[in-house]
Design goal:
Elements lengths: L4 H19 L6 H13 L1 H4 L2 H22 L2
Length: about 70
């Protein structure tokens, strides 16, 4: 997967309203809920450590890969 950094700013601007709705909790977000649960479980300081972030990223990646598997059957 490649990221086209030339188009990144335009994509962020395009999604700005949706992102602000997630930040302001007007819209539910699986990833925001997951992050809040991690912070509540281990504490904010520990949740921000590189090892914790990498570990939780692996959980999200596994869930994402599993969902792709099930939807592509």
């Amino acid at each position: 997967m490649e990221i086209n950094f030339e188009l990144l700013e335009a994509r962020i601007i395009q999604m700005k309203d949706e992102l602000l709705d997630i930040i302001n909790k007007k819209v539910n977000s699986y990833y925001q809920k997951f992050s809040i649960e991690v912070c509540q479980k281990v504490g904010i300081r520990k949740a921000k450590t590189p090892m914790s972030i990498m570990g939780h990223f692996e959980i999200l990646r596994a869930c994402f890969n599993l969902s792709i598997y099930y939807f592509n059957l």
